[in-house]
Amino acid sequence: MERRTDLAVEERELLGEDVKGVDYCEEEIEGLPIERLHIRTPRAGQLLKKPVGTYITVGLPPLTDNIRDTDRRVKALSEEIRRLLPVNGLVLVAGLGNIEITPDALGPKAASKVLATRHIPGEIARSTGLNQLRAVAVVNTGVTGQTGIETGELLRGIIRNIRPSAVIAMDALASRRLERLGCTVQISDTGIAPGAGVGNRRVRIDADTMGVPVIAIGVPTVVDALTLAFDLLDISDEKEGMTLCDAVSPQGRSMVVTPKEVDLLIDRAAHLISLAVNMALQTEIDTEDLLNLL
After folding, report:
1. If we measure between CA atoms, which residue out of 2, 28, 26, 31 comes closest to residue 14?
2. Are strands 136-142 and 91-96 parallel, antiparallel or unpaired?
3. Any idea what DSSP says for residue 192?
4. How big is the CA angle at 167 (ends 161 and 168), to the nearest 5 degrees?
5. Fewer CB within 10 Å: N-end or C-end of the chain?
6. Which run of H or of E encompasses 59?
7. Rounded to whole angstroms, how far apart are CA atoms 167 and 53?
C-alpha cells in the first residue's frame, strides 16, 4: 500500500535514511529545526516519488499557538523563501485550494494577505514613497470543481500575459504522521502537484509546465486515513496490508483525518506564511512599514 505524503523528508524516512543520489542535512536557525534535502538524480527522484530539486522542511511549535508579527518563525521562513527567489522581476503569488473546505483553505487565505503591488504605477509609487516595493501579483485559483478550469491552465494563461520571473504557489499538504500537522512547513523549488497527497492528483505546476521557476510552500493539514492506520498500528505492508485495508474499507479508503482545531490552525498558518512571503518579496522596505501596508 502506498503511504501518501507530500513531504520529501517523510518519503526518505520510508525508504531508509541512506538513499543514493540524495543529500540531506539538519541544522537549527532561529531556534527552529530545519531539514534540507536535495534530490540530485532522476533515479533518486523515482525512489522518493519527488522531482529533482531542493526541499526545505522547517519544524515549528504548534501553529495553534499565537504568532507575533516579528516572530522568529516569520524571519526564518522568509529567509528560506528569499534564497529560492530570483533577485529581480515580477512575482506571481498563487493561493491553491478550496476556501470552502477548511483543511484545504490554506492557500487562498494566505494569498489574501499577500501585498499586491503590480497595479501601482511608477509615478504614484514615487509620490507615495512606495517606489521600493517589488512588483507582485496575487491570484486565488480555486479548484476545478468550482471553476471548470485546471489550476495549471489558469496559471499558464496568467503567466503568458503578465510574464512573471517566478511563481510562489501556496497550498495545504498531506503528511503521514499526526505530529507533523500544523507543526511543519515545506518549501521547495520543484513546484507542486495539487491534490497528490489525498489521491486527487492534477496537472503539475512547475518550471516545465509554467515556463518560470515555481516555489511551493505548504503546511500539512491532513493525514490519509489508511496511511494513519498503518503508522499508528505499526503494521508491515507485506504481512498485514490486505487485512488492514479490509478493516478500514470501503469507506475508510477515501477518508482523511484532520485536527479538531483545524480552523485555528489554518488561520494562523495562513498568517505565518503570508508574513514570511511578504518579507521575502519586499526586502527594500522596513518590516514595520510593510506591516502598516497590509
Report:
1. 2
2. parallel
3. B
4. 145
5. C
6. strand 53-59
7. 16
CA distance 163 to 138: 13
Q: How many CB atoms lie within 10 A of CB 30?
A: 14
How many whole angstroms separate alpha carbon 83 and alpha carbon 21?
A: 23
Q: How far is CA 238 from CA 26, 39, 66, 274, in A?
A: 31, 27, 43, 42
Are 178 and 201 spatial neighbours (Cβ–Cβ below 8 Å)? no
143: its cell numbers: 479548484
Average confidence (pLDDT) over 260-269: 90
Provide CB contacts within 8 A for 67, sequence distance 6+: 73, 74, 268, 271, 272, 275
Q: What does the block give as the cell for 244?
A: 488492514
Q: In the chain, what is the straight-line distance between the N-terminal and C-terminal CA atoms, in Å?
A: 45
Interatomic CA distance for residues 218 and 216, integer angstroms: 7
C-alpha cell at 120: 501601482
Query: For the segment 196-233, what is each residue's pLDDT rounded down to a tens digit?
Result: 544 555 678 999 999 999 999 999 999 887 777 776 66
Q: What are phi and psi of 205, to 5 degrees?
A: -115, 100
32 vs 28, 66, 72, 97, 272, CA distance in Å?
Answer: 5, 16, 9, 27, 14
Number of H helices, E strands in the chain: 12, 9
Q: What is the DSSP string of 217-280?
A: EEEEEEEEHHHHHHHHHT--HHHHHHHHHHHHTTGGGG-EE--TTHHHHHHHHHHHHHHHHHHH
